[in-house]
Structure formats: structure tokens, C-alpha cells
Amino acid sequence: MRVPIRLTVASLASALALAPSGRAGAQQPIEPRPAAGRSLSLQQAYQQAESHNPGVRIARAQLERAHGQEWQARSQYLPQLNAQLLYTKTLATQFSALAGPPDTRPLCRAFVPVTGAVTADRIDSLEKALGLATNCRAAGGIDFTRAGFGAANQWQLGLTASLNLFTGGRVSAVNRVASAGYRNADLELRSQRAQLALNVAQAYFDAVLADRLLAIAESSLVQTEAVYRQVQVANTVGNAAEFELLRASVTRDNQRPQLIQRRADRDVARLRLKQVLDLAPADSFVLTTSPNDGDPATTETLLTSLGVATNDTSTAARVLVQQAGETVHVQEDQFRVSRSQRFPTVTLSSSYGRVAFSQQDYQFPNLSSFLTNWTVSLTASLPLFTGGRIYGDEMVARAGLAEALARLDQVRQGASIDARQASSQLAQAIAAWQASAGTSEQAARAYRIAEVRYREGISTQLELNESRLLLQQTQANRASAARNLQLARLRVALLRDLPLGAASAAAQGGQSSPIPSSTQGGQGAGSSATAGQQSAAGGTTP
Fold first, then answer.
1. Pairing of strands 38-40, 285-287
2. Interval 494-513: pLDDT, tens
3. Where are the chain's structural domains?
4. Is the pTM of this model over 0.90?
């Protein structure tokens, strides 16, 4: 029968003075927690991550590019107007062989007969006119000094305009493709932001859970240390056997590896959070948003910033379903674009130009010396034979449309299953949270009673260790259930914008109990919350 441990104040003081301190002093003290840094709430963590996340930045760039492609497609409805200024310097020309000295002869004049003159005078005037006609240069004709044949310097001012009158539906189809691309890019941005919010919340609550499990492990070590010192004093005064002292020592020593493991898990969870937030490893912060109360308002601010008002788990509302639907529209219009090649294309164009020639190099001529060229043309083109290219384009577009329709059906089925799975996980998390309500308080009271019973000699150390383990397990289960509940609620709220499988992938490992159930003393506290994965480990006591 076990001897009750009852000590007076005097005997306790003397026993503490006489108790050997070598073994206790050899144990490593509890490592202090890292220095506190700036406060970091869940909303602040998301804002920090969003401003640096590559996925969100890429999605924003894709949205901007899609908007530019809309402008490109819309421009085909409007006339295209271009202006140009062209200067040409002729270094050598074939017309140089035709060049000769300048003609200095007088201009040829029209013959005017002398009326009323005698015959001799009239003959004389005719002879003079004939002589002049054989040695004069003709007036009028082409002034080749102002023509472009071999001109040394040529200046052109031009203005061209073109307008598509009929394209067989190609321009309309291209504009619909661009609009669908913009909607797809907008949906992708929403999906990236929702996925980032879930990742941030998971890393954040994992770090909070790791902190809580570390606190539980530290509390358990303090409890076992207190029991060890109590048994040590009792053994010193002869009220406890050496076996009891050995059991208490082993129980206490088995808690230290678990505390080291919890501390490492805490550090890894915080490093994971820093990685998601793009923070330096040396940065320190204090997590101010706790999931322990299970309050739905914990993530309300985050959901409001993402534009999520109500939970919508319908298949038609899922982002991936909408993206698959937009892809079907794109493929339909791509088929129309390929088919439009069989129709004629009618284009109206006009060109207005002013041209001048100069003998002096690089000298801009006077505006009065510019000549005008202005043309208007109507062009119709129809492919008669393309070697099967158009038919091949239609085959490719038709196959793309069939693939898009099949993928739409596939995504719809996956979205339906994914929504049911997320709802099931939420129901499971709610049930686990409700089941853990009050258990922690009951386990704490049971441990206090076990302490009193052991101190009074009514129970054994094994019963005290079992009570401590149950307290440790219920506290960890409560913290894990709060974390799982908050993440499950957030997943359901963001389900509309999340990719398929994101909800189930993020929930893996977060539903099991973080403390192994055992009746042996010296069991470890908690499991790693790093990246949502939890493990259990424990020690044994003789």
C-alpha cells in the first residue's frame, strides 16, 4: 500500500534544502519564446501577401493584356488612318543617259500672217517664220524638271485610310473572342486571390495552432516538473519509494523531447507563414487573430475584402465552370473565324498624297511646288484555292470546340463533387468543435482533483499522469478543432472562386486528433501544425 505524502511546512523546507540538486540542475531550462514583434492580424497578413504574391501579379498582368486585346479587336470596326512623310535622295538613275544640256533656244511662237501687205512682204514674213520654227523650243508639254524621272530629291506627304466593309463575320467573331478572354482573365484573378486567401489563412492558423500546442507542451512540462519535485521531497523525508521517484523523473524527462518537437514545429509553421507573406526569416510578429473561439466573424473582414457576401456552392457559380464556359464560346467563335475565310473580303481605301521634287539636296521645297495625288479604291478578295488550308483550319477549330465541350462537362461534375466534399468537411468540423466544447474545462478540473488525490495519498502517480495526458489531449483537440472549423468555413465561403480540389487538399491532415490516446505517463503534447499536417508522438514510463 502506498504511503500518503503529507508534509508539514518545516519538513518541506528542510527537505528542499537537503534534496539533491545535481539531476535537476543538469536538465535544460525551458527556452524562452522569441521576442515579440509587430502585431499581425489575418487581414493584414492577406494584404501583405497579396501585394507580393507572384500568382496574383501574373493574373493582374494577364487581365491588363486581355483588356489590350479587346482594344485591338475593336479597332477593326473603325477606319484606319495613317500619315507619312517620305524623302528620297537619288544617287544614280537610268534616266541620266537621257539628260543633255539645257535648251536655251527661244520659245516657238505661233505664225501670224501679215494682212494687207504686198506679195513680197508676205513671202518675206513666211520665210522668217519658217526660219524661227526650225530653231526654237516648243512651249507647253511636260516640264521634266518637275517630274519624278530621275529627280535628285523627292519629297512626299501622304495620308491613307482604309475601312473593312465586309469580312464574312470575322471581325465580330474576333471581338467576341477578345471579350471572352477578358472575362476569363478576370475570373482567373478572382481565383488567384481566393486561393491566396485560403493559403494565408491556413498558414496563419497553423502558426497559431503551433503556438498553442507549444504552450500546452510547456504547461505539461511544468506540471511534470512540479510532480517530480514533490516526489523528490517526499523521497528525501522517507514518505515516497525510489520507484515513485524514478517514475516521476522518467515522466518529466519524456516531456522534454516533446517540448523540443513542439518548438521546432512552431518555428517551421512561422517560417511557412513568412514564406507565404514574403517576409524575411528574421522578421518577428505577434499573431492577433485567434480561431480558438470558433466565431464566424473571425474571417468576416477577409471575406468582405474579397467581395464574398454569401456562401454560394452551386455548380454554375464556380469560377472554373464559368471559365470552361468561356472557353467553349471562344472555340465557337474561332470556328466562325476559320469559316469566314470562305467569304469575300471587301475593303474601302483611299490615299491622298502631295509630292515635290528638288534639285538642291536636303532642302525642303516650297509648299507651292507640291503636286497632288488622290485615289479611292474598293477592293474585294476571295480565296479560290488554298491547298486545303481553310478546310484544315475548320477541322482544328471543330476539334477544339468538341474538346472544350467535353472539358465543360468534366468540370461541372468535378465542381459538384467538390462542393459536396467541402460541405461535408464543414459539417465534420462543426461536429468536432461542438464535441470538444466543455471537455477541456472538465479535463482541467479532473486533473486538479487528481492532484489533490495524489497529494493526499488516495490515488497513484499513474492516475495523475493519465489525468494530465487527458488534459493535454483535450486542450490540443480543442485548439485543432477551432483551426479546422475556421478553415472549413473559409473554404466553403471561397468555394465559388477556388480551383477544383483546393478545399480537399487544404483540409488533409487537419481533422485527426493531435494527441495520441494512451494511459501511460510522459506522453507528448500536440502535433505539428506545419502546412496543415499533424503527427503524434509520445514516450513511455516504467
1. parallel
2. 999 998 876 555 555 444 44
3. 31-75+171-329+391-532
4. no
